[in-house]
Amino acid sequence: MLEPKAQLYENNRFTGSTPSFTSINASILRNSPPHSLSEDATPKLVSNSNNDPIDDKTPLIGADGFIVETQKQNLLPQQELSNKFKRLSMKLQNKTTTGDSHQFMNNFQQNIEKANNLNAGTNEPTRESAYYKKIHETFQDDEEPDAPSSCASSINSSSSKVPSSDSSSFDFNTSKDDSFALSGNRIKADKTNNEEIPIRKDLLSQVVTDTRFKDLSEEEKIKLFIATKGKLNNNNSNTGLNIVYDDNNASHLSSDGESVASETSVNGTNAAKVAKTAYEAATMAVAEQEEEDLSSLFIRALHPFDSSSLQSEADASICLSFNKNDLAFVHTIDESGWGEVTLIDSLQRGWIPMNYFAIAIADDEDDYDSDDETKIPNSHYLKPLFHSCGKFLLNPLSYKTRNNKYTFSIKVVNSIRDGVRLLLQETDCLSRSNELVTKRPVVRKSRKTLLADWYNLMVKANEFKNTSSFNKIEVLTLMVYQVARKAVSFLEIWSVESAKVGQAKQHAKPKATHDGFISYSLLPSPPLAKQRITEINGILFSYLGLILGRLDLIEHNQVGCDILETITHQIILLLRELLYISKVGSDFTSEKPQDLDASLDCLLSLVSELVTTVKALVSKTFNESAKEKVDSFGSPQFNGTRDYHYTKEGGNLIVIASKMVKAISMTVTSIRKLLDVTGDFKLKGGGERTYPDYGKMRIEPEEFVRKCSLGIAKNLNQPDNFKNFSVTKPYKSNRYSLVRSGKSGDLGFTESGANLMQNILTNDTTSPFSISTPEFQQFASSESNGASDIKNELLVDSSGNLLGASFKGLIYTLTNEEAPPDYFFVSTFFICFRSFANGIDLIEELISRFQMEILDNSIAMKKRRRLIVKMFQIWMESYWNHDADYSLLTTLINFFNEGVCIILPLDGLRLLEIAAKLSSHPLIENKKRYHRVNNQLVNRSITINKKKFDRPPSIMSDEESVYSMVDGYELSKINTNSSTSNSITALPLPLGIGNQKSNAGSLLTKSQLHTIENLNAAFRSILGDSWCESSDKKYKPIELTTLISNWFKICDQTWVLSNYRPNLLDFNGLEIAKQLTLIESQIFCAIKPEELLNQNYTAKRAHLKMAPNVRTSLLFTNCLSSYVLESTLQPRISDKLRVNIVKTWLKVAISCLYLRNFNSLAAIITALQSHLITRLDGLWQDLSEKYTELYEYLSSIIHPDKNYAVYRSKLRKFLVANDYNIPIVPYFSLFLQDLTFVTDGNPNYRKANTFLNQKLINIDKYLKTSRIIADIETLQISYLDTEEHHPKRYSFLSLSKTNTGGSDGYFISPVPALQELILLELWKIIQLNNSEEDRAWKLSCDIQPRDVS
Helix H segments across 282-324? Predict the structure, then answer.
């Protein structure tokens, strides 16, 4: 394809001239005959210009430095670059090359030119470059020594020395049944990787039966087999490609071209050592899957070309001459139609006209066209090899070592190795015992030559591992070119010879077989394992997705049940083949994933349940009465709010299908791990082993829906009512929604279902769910002015911050591929979207964005769709409301199965797996609806989690001087006037006190613990089952979560008690503070974001029970304050004891401060600041100065002055220091105060800055709300030293787990008995206050009467 180009091209690396493509084209044009095509079909161009001999051909140079094309030039005939080469040009532009590779390729080409010039006078008839001889040269290292080859042996060789150029140095087994086992021998990428080489168990039979090695374990036998290359006796019957190199025994070629090796003697003692060394040196590298196919970089000449025919010497100097069928490797393609290539035979690099060439690898549909001599027959067999060679040649120095030097990629070399193996496997020449190899010497010789070059490449690559020497990289590059040449030569010879003996692979009509009650087509040849696994996984998920999302079309429908039986039968076929692939893969290696057998057992068990459940459902359907299965068109709600109730059998089927999705995912993952070890392989063929063509037998969702709908239409009651039906609102999600509603005997249709039935009745030959059908044309979307129109629905401030938006505008911001949203905005949206929309609105907008097409920008559309998929994933995993969103689940499943999987298969399967986890509790008729706790599949934080560090030296170092007086308050002692007056002495300060960094344990004696347990037992006997289940007489602690839940319930009940004396202060105040902190922390960490939205926490919405944990926190705080008042004002105690009680509460308060329990601190100090206590003058006069100062200091911390400025400054330090995971219990009421201020102070909507003045959602209000909630979430860190109390939080961008556990120095040891007593004591005071109104005021007046004056 030749096109005039007006720009000088200055990349000539061969001469100093700078010829243009224009002059090259002109040269060809002036030499063209007046005919458009010659007899040999060589492409030529007709010149329309007048050949004026005095016409000045001097190019005119414009001001911009480029050639100005004249009118004559514009009249020259032009040709377009073919689409294939345009795509290839784009592919080359997207590939990056390291600077070292670029420099290497320049040096490499210069060396080739020198060698070719020196060889020019020899008059050799071949066009092969003389530089290929360098492969067999030996040279001294010109760089630092490479890594020791003994650490990275890739071949089963006893020496790392490179074999000589003589082919006799290669030792090939001569046994008739021997073949080359390419699997399992790879260059070792990392010397610390000691994976076993995959060994087939049937190859170990000689080791097992040999009495010399009977005491060896199976692993040692495998090592011995590898070390001795399987040559344990004279009877070698290996299969596979066993290439052996032995320095110590000279080998020679036999008469038939095969090399003969001397037998290696094995000594039982030394064999173990050799085995260990060889085993540690061998490894299996995982084959790398590439997104782009690079095999198209190899092209083949369709016609000959002589560059000397060009008139310009400068043009001829950079252009190459070539013959027909010459193979070349493409480096660059210019838009003018010229390409820079390397001719693989001559290794010359230069420019060629691309329309003289075609891609060497033909399309699959054209690959068997033997009449076309320009094509390589069966060229698709070369595709994996050419892809790997192309990857190496594009960027030879692609891997960066630890020394910041570049070297070749071991993975790429290994993939070349796999390409040769696949070529031999496809041609059935993997074994030398093959009939074609045995009978045709030319095939045998070609195969031998290819394997010799392949072996040289692997040995050299192993020796040159980690090298940066250009000399060594040149050798590897030449070897890669050589392997590519020999592979083409082998394939051409094999194709010709195999045709002669009738073994050529032809496109035959697929066979068919009959299994049970269905017949299906078969594949003409066995497939590859990895490809088959992917196909089976996709079909299984599709069928299970139909069961989960479309069961309403199957139940009460005999046609649907027939299709269900067919699907079930195909599922069994698919799983049977899945099991077979895992068995075949396991036979190739003794090392398989540990969870493979368990996942297969689980899957097989579920298959049995599936068959049983399907039979039960089908039997029920066929035995139903007419009333149970007739659908009626009536007035039932058509807006989707009426749910569909599954039958008992249908509900069981959904539960089993959801379990099967998980089991299949686990099984496929395990099998893929197995294939990573063994490498990909072609499944066995022949005999009775056949492989169904699932692509032809598969039931597509569209066909499934159409057939089931036709079956339902037959049982319609009053079908004429559908004729005039019209949809109230054309949701795009209607095509994925439930069709039916109601239950057995009361079946109806949803609005989308009625619309579907209307279409079926009017025209049953058209697929109702095709986007091209008329009823869905109104839903089709295109984005023409979407970006500009949406700006009118967004309101931003001067800094670009989003203030308001319509719901559509929010979805646009959420899925904007050009500017993806930040993490915090995504969290805010999903936390708050139910405040201004509902789930169906969200689904509708996301589906609309997913289906909207962007003209001429498929890359942007793909990015957007992946972003939409990510939003669906985040919603279902972390923000799913099981009650509110349940009715949307089938719509989502159908969209994933019928919409996403078509465009993004892997993403669709991942979403189906998540949705299946949420489908485990379907709505079943005549059964109470299951209400699930909103436990999310993945706990995500509102803000991105930062890296967590160890605890800092001190968070409050500026106040250590104040805290150092802790010892003066004798926190380790209890009230000396209490009934248990024993003091605890000589105990260290516990957690967080002073400079202590570790937990000192409980401060209670055994006798005190026994007393507490007795008190609890007395309460338990009174409360009975309302508190805990009756158990043995021996006291057993109860989980704190259960205690808190039961405590909240009994606080609403009325009980009559005989003893109301406060007993809590009879025990150590510091231990009380510790257990108070654990209780408060448990309640605080349980608070969910949804409890803090829409004022759900307020008293006016308490009856809705939408914020249970918030209500529990507020109740506990109020009860603690009441308990402080009651204990201080209790009657019939002395003034001295009353003073001591105040001191004890001050000790508890300061302990709470050191434990960072600000909520209990506030509750205690607020109670002491109450007028009921401050009015008692005598109490405060008797209080010592030390405790008075302590009271004043603690009061200043939670003083409301300047909106609690002192407390907020302290809290800010902990928020900043959250990277250290410091547990804290904040003053929670202030958070509620802030939330109330934001909610009441900001409107729900804003007005847009447009002439329409429409209302926009005030997203700024919800962003502010989310920031407060994020601060709460940041502080939700447990004091408990157990993994289960540190929830794992995830980032939706990276989906990685981050443990948010705290440092050991902040843990508190729980005392369950004391925690129970605290809750029961607080409950007792509630009962006391409920029984007597204004009790605290009366007690205060009894101590100090009112001053009536």
Answer: 313-318
